[in-house]
Amino acid sequence: MDQALLRALIxxxxxxxxxxxxxxxxxxxxxxEALVEAIRVWPENPPRDPKGWLVTVAWRKFLDAAxxxxxxxxxxxxxxxxxxxGEGEAVDDTLxxxxxxxxxxLTPASAVALTLxxxxxxxxxxxxxxxxxPEATMAQRISRAKRTVSSVRFTQPGDVGTVLxxxxxxxxxxxxxxxxxxxxxxxxxxxxxxxxxxxxxAGLLALMLLHHARRPARTAPDGSLVPLAEQDRSLWDTRxxxxxxxxxxxxxARDRLGEFQAQAAIAALHADARTAExxxxxxxxxxxxxxxxxxxxxxxxxxxxxxxxxxxGARAGLAALEGLxxxxxxxxxxxxxxxxRDGDLVTAARLYAEAARAxxxxxxREHLTRQAARLNTGLRR
Amino acid sequence: MAKYLLLKHYRGAPASVNDVPMDQWTPEEFSAxxxxxxxxxxxxxxxGEFVESHELSPEGTFVRYDGExxxxxxxxxxxxxxxxxxxxxxxxxxxxxxxxxxxxxxSAAPGAGGKPIHEWLxxxxxxxxxxTATE
Lengths: 381, 135
What we know:
By secondary structure, chain A is mainly α.
């Protein structure tokens, strides 16, 4: 069974039920039930018309639930058992679902969970496993999210920016479980880019493709992090890089720069260098200038300082660090790197150890501890 | 979302405000306490923030390697260890502030006289995920 094909049908089928008169929450539940049944039944009995099968089963599940609810309340079922004619799409249902599931009234984690289920066609169990929480907890997170957006009209236009932030979260903060969330984020962003012409959607897609291309080189066989400068570039996926660069160039040609395009441009310049030494740091610094101008983000300034260190020497990089809050995430790691390049190994070793203690994840802690150990061992000799 | 461990100590934490040992409570006070803990976990499940909850027996033994071909050395169980973990709850929440808020609620579980125990709980963050985009 082609899981990707099945998953791609889910938002369309939710749209069909909503246009037949089901409210979003009930439609989404019914389609989830049909999805779970499809995963069970299809491997043995693949349907000739997968979409028709899903619509029929989901509609039946919806009617069963509506009747049960009505008898509980001793009321008539108000939705006709016979579907209304006219299933033509007036609006793009899938696009509407992206907006609804990333509605600004939702917390980021709720928006992520709802997007993965209703747009991504993942089961609650798969999402729970991906985020390492019990299935019951994830089910509650999703039903609360649906209650939060219950008053939002399905056809209400939404904000592309919030959708992009949700997709970026899925890409960047997904645990690696059974479901490849980074790959799923790319699929969902690609599907969005096919429906809406927006330079930042393209920018985000390019950014994801260019980062994903480096994935095989990013971790050593023992699981440790390999920094960009030390990666085996022959492992980079050139097909993804080519696609990412093409998508980015088309976006930049529209001349409406945004933060995702700027970040993708930086990733593209790294992808362009056959060796770390060939990296065009001067252009990278220019893109960081753009990124700082667009976002004003201190994290962008911190990354810019490291790039300045490469372009103009460690002293210039350290000067660019001045004025930044040392409590910024990864500030000590950046300062350690620049001090080492400047030849001050004692300060660098101390800062690497400090950075390791403050590391937000285990892989970075191990990497930074190893850097401190390397410098301290050298200093003892 | 970020995961936090709410760690409960039998010993080793500063003394609670309502510091009466459980075996000195009335059965009703004890039942009220257990019910509070169950309700708390159920409420967290309904808000989508619950991960797990476990309690440990107070019997603990230290074990260490004692060289090739020798059985490990054990020491204990101890009656007077300084620190003794009683159990934990793992939560998955939006912010550190929310973790503190929930730990505060858990610490208000009723004890002797039906009054909050004001017990000290230790809040420890889990390591997060390694982001895909790193530079």
